Structure formats: C-alpha cells, structure tokens
Task: structure prediction
Amino acid sequence: MDDTSQNELLAPDQARDENWRHTREAYENNPRLLLRNTLQAFDGSIKTFYDKALKYVPLKANILEIGSGDGCGADYLEALGYTVLRTDPIRNFVRFQKSRGKKTHQFDVLTQVLAQRFDLVLAPAVFHHFDDEDFEDAAKHVFDMLPSYGIFSLCGYSGVGARFKRYGNKQRYFCYRTPEMLSDSLKRSGFIVEETYLLDGTWANCIASKP
Ligand SMILES: C[S@@+](CC[C@H](N)C(=O)[O-])C[C@H]1O[C@@H](n2cnc3c(N)ncnc32)[C@H](O)[C@@H]1O
Result:
C-alpha cells in the first residue's frame, strides 16, 4: 500500500466514470510513484492484510488479486506456496510485473468478471478508489467470481468523505470508509461479514464470505 500524504483536494461533484478516468490517468502517467513506494519492505499493515485473509483458506486455494500494482503482495503469497492470479487494469503495472517474469492479466473489476471461480479474492487498497455506485458494481463482480463459501478480503483508507489527491502530475480519487462502512456495503451486496478491523488507525479492513 502506498503513502498518499500528498495534497488533498475536495472531490467535485462529477460523473462517476470521471473519478476512475482521473485515477487511471494518474497511475498510467506516474507508475514509478507506486513502484517506488511499495517496493520497500513488505511488512506492517500490508502483511497483516494478507496473513488474516489466508487464515480462511487452505494452501491449495485458488486466489485472485485485484489491483496487484507492483506485485509485492502476490510475491508474498507465492513465497508462502499459494497460487495467485495477478491482475491490474493499468498497463504500466502489468508491463512492470511481466518484466519481472510474472504472468499478469489486465483486468478492471468495474467492468469485467472472469469466468473462473476463486476461493479467495483480495483487493488491497483498491476499492477506496470507488464511489458508492462503483463499489456496489465491483462488489457484485467479485461476488460472481466466488463459489459458495468463497472469501473476499479488502482494505482501504479509513474515514468518511471523498477527495481527489494529487499524484505526480495528476489526481487520484479516494472515497474513505470505516470498517463498519465496508461491512455495511458488503452486506448490502449479499456477503456475510466474517471480520472487520482497523490497522494502524489508517486502514479499514473487511473479510466477507459468499453464502
Ligand atoms: C493504491 S494502489 C494499491 C496497489 C497494491 N494493491 C498495493 O497494496 O500496493 C491501487 C491499485 O488499484 C488498482 N485499481 C484501481 N482501479 C481499479 C479497477 N477498476 N479495477 C482493478 N484494479 C484497480 C490500481 O491500478 C492500483 O494498482
């Protein structure tokens, strides 16, 4: 997860696909900012995010990671012996992972559903880029990629409200949610909430299952 202690701007009331357009442009134009931030030590709250989710699935679990970014999380899973499908909608992140010899799919959870089913779907620091309507769409897509009893684990910046935050020469959209807000949203999308927790006072986490 990257550090975003950069300039914050109040999000103007824009069409929802504008939020994603800004965020996509920010990542495509400034891939090095994310790569520089997350290629540092893999520990703390990001490691806890993976460790807690893994308690719900066996080692042979089929895992999908949404928004893999630089692939540090997937590297960690593979080092533990898990099989993970790495995905990201940003071409520069996909290219970066491929340049490291990692098979990575270009995948946008707002518009796509994979035919495959996964025991565990992970979305680390991804859904905070979605407003409520996008969150609902993406959660439905995740729901459709899980079998019964499949697990979905996500995290994002905790808080309330929405902001655009400067990222290099562009801006990313963020919608803050507390653990309770994540829980309520996933319940509305048909999930059973297994666990919610706050890490470092910053990261809202929620683990849910498909009935
Ligand atoms: C803050 S970065 C987190 C990257 C990585 N998961 C981590 O924790 O370091 C947000 C990630 O979400 C991805 N993302 C944003 N919108 C997405 C979407 N609609 N579908 C899938 N991934 C998305 C971005 O491309 C980016 O890799």
